[in-house]
User: Which sequence fits this backbone?
């Protein structure tokens, strides 16, 4: 497992680097996010351990950039006791977990060991499964991971065989994390093209030049249109493709031919395109942000995946499904009170966020049971204080102050006014908790 540590505090950075190397972790430590971003472009890392308060770039902005450019890297953030609310925000933007300062290297190593063991176990299970199943069973397995008993999902289940056999282009609408890519792959595996290439491109956040070379190729490589020929091309966030490249894509689809970069030859194209969009493309065409002709080419069969908050009855099934994935050889049970907390959360990150939470719970779990107390604090925050977007500068301090007050009130209610237990519930030192309580004592109520 290769680790990148980013921290502007030299002594802590060097200590972590040396201790991790002694524990056989291939570790590089740097002092700034900008250097970290350069290294991430040059080398592959499994885990990023980063501080949140650093010069040049705030840790939250660094996290967003990393998760956008390297979505598969696991991020652990380091934060001080007084910045728990910032750590909660980091989790909302894709961090895997956080560790509170001051901490020992042994605490971080223990977290990494659990993560490594979980990854090894999951990979071993996947390898064993692939050795025991043929292509048909793999297809069925993938199809069954679209889990749910809600009416919306059942309607999707009923449509899959029909739209798969139609061989028309498909547009899948839905929020991020609802399972659009899984639905696209399932449709491909149920279609007559199942033994042909399935090629994916996520155009979100890519530069115009990158999108062009990825789709149409360049002098050094074939484009995905060619690679997917005879099969399926899956384009995630197709609405983020620039207008000039939309026109180029439309010309290729109209002519059903792809011309090489040097213009010397062209090949016949026979492929199905499955696209996704988080926005209403019809409205975008009215505003001139998406070509109307391309919209009609791609939107032949529209499908919609609802957000998880609209299908809460499916949450217990999904929880058990992810528990089976991340603890297949352990009897980890989730208690009803924990399920109630998870079901009550609005899940802005949808199924992807739920999977991340279950993986984290399994990783840090020391027993055979997950209870309400084990649920991460950001899930238990009052709904009014959950931060879906980065707060504006004018409201930042007020939001932090309000969140602190909400947390203290929540902890005091949970412990019936016991300050020591309330401090422990929030992982705060009793003295720190008492100081925070004193600031808000006239504005909170905790007595039932």
Assistant:
């Amino acid at each position: 497992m290769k680790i990148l540590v980013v921290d502007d505090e030299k002594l802590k950075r060097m200590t972590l680097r040396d201790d991790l190397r002694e524990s056989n972790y291939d570790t590089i430590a740097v002092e700034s996010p900008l250097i970290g971003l350069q290294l991430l472009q040059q080398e592959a890392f499994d885990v990023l351990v980063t501080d949140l308060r650093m010069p040049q770039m705030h840790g939250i902005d660094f996290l967003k950039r990393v998760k956008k450019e390297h979505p598969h890297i696991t991020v652990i953030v380091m934060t001080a006791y007084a910045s728990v609310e910032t750590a909660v925000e980091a989790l909302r933007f894709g961090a895997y977990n956080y560790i509170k300062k001051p901490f020992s290297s042994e605490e971080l190593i223990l977290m990494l060991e659990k993560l490594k063991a979980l990854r090894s176990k999951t990979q071993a299970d996947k390898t064993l499964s692939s050795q025991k199943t043929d292509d048909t069973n793999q297809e069925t397995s993938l199809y069954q991971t679209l889990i749910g008993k809600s009416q919306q999902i059942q309607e999707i289940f009923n449509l899959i065989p029909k739209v798969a056999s139609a061989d028309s282009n498909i547009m899948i609408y839905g929020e991020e994390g609802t399972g659009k890519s899984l639905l696209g792959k399932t449709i491909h595996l149920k279609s007559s093209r199942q033994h042909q290439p399935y090629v994916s491109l996520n155009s979100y956040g890519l530069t115009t030049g990158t999108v062009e070379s990825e789709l149409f190729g360049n002098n050094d490589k074939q484009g995905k249109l060619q690679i997917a020929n005879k099969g399926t091309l899956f384009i995630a966030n197709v609405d983020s493709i620039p207008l000039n490249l939309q026109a180029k894509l439309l010309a290729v689809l109209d002519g059903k031919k792809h011309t090489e970069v040097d213009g010397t030859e062209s090949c016949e194209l026979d492929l199905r395109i499955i696209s996704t969009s988080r926005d209403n493309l019809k409205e975008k065409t009215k505003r001139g942000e998406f070509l109307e002709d391309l919209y009609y080419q791609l939107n032949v069969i529209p499908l919609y995946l609802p957000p998880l908050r609209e299908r809460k009855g499916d949450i217990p099934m999904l929880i058990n499904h992810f528990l089976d994935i991340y603890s297949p050889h352990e009897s980890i049970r989730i208690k009803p009170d924990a399920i109630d907390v998870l079901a009550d959360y609005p899940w802005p990150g949808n199924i992807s966020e739920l999977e991340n939470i279950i993986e984290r719970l399994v990783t840090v779990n020391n027993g055979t049971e997950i209870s309400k107390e084990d649920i991460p604090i950001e899930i238990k925050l009052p709904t009014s204080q959950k931060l879906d977007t980065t707060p504006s500068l004018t409201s930042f301090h007020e939001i932090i102050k309000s969140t602190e007050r909400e947390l203290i009130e929540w902890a005091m209610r949970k412990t019936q006014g016991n300050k020591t237990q309330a401090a422990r519930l929030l992982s705060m030192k009793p003295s720190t908790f008492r100081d925070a309580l004193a600031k808000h004592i006239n504005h909170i109520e905790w007595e039932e």
Summary: Confidence is low (pLDDT under 50) at residues 124-144, 384-396.
